[in-house]
Design goal:
Family: Belongs to the bZIP family.
Radius of gyration: 42 Å
Main location: nucleus
Organism: Caenorhabditis tropicalis
Protein name: BZIP domain-containing protein
GO molecular function, one term: RNA polymerase II transcription regulatory region sequence-specific DNA binding
Strand content: under 5%
Largest sheet: none
Distance between the termini: 120 Å
């Protein structure tokens, strides 16, 4: 158990030393980079991030991305087709409803005219 703790303590001490060094550099001048040599800034670190270490992984990721893009475009195409079908159906329904409204308005005008005529005839009969 002590062997596990010892390396952790060493790592912690090293981190603290590095933090103190960074703080010391930043306090000594306005820019923390000014005291660093150009070699320290220009050379990539040994632990730099390489997401695809092998060309095979890179090609596999590219192929995976192409498939995902194809699936996405196909999904969007289907959604657009469904929306267009829905619009067509709603347009037909709207047209039918407008025809019904026109028919009902025509019937209302007819019955109002009929009631007016009947009212006059009833008034003549009463008089």
């Amino acid at each position: 158990m002590e062997t596990d703790v010892q390396p952790k303590e060493k790592i912690l001490e090293e981190i603290v030393r590095e933090c103190e060094e960074i703080e010391r550099r930043s306090n000594s001048s306005g820019s923390p980079v000014s005291n660093w040599s150009s070699d320290e800034r220009d050379t990539p670190s040994e632990k730099s991030y390489h997401p695809y270490k092998t060309p095979e992984k890179k090609e596999r990721k590219k192929a995976q991305n192409r498939l995902a893009a194809t699936r996405y475009r196909e999904k969007k195409r289907r959604e657009k087709e469904e929306a267009m079908t829905c619009i067509e159906g709603l347009t037909v329904t709207n047209s039918k409803l407008k025809d019904q409204v026109s028919e009902l308005e025509r019937e209302i005008r007819y019955f109002k005219k009929f009631m007016t005529e009947m009212g006059m005839k009833n008034a003549e009969l009463r008089a």
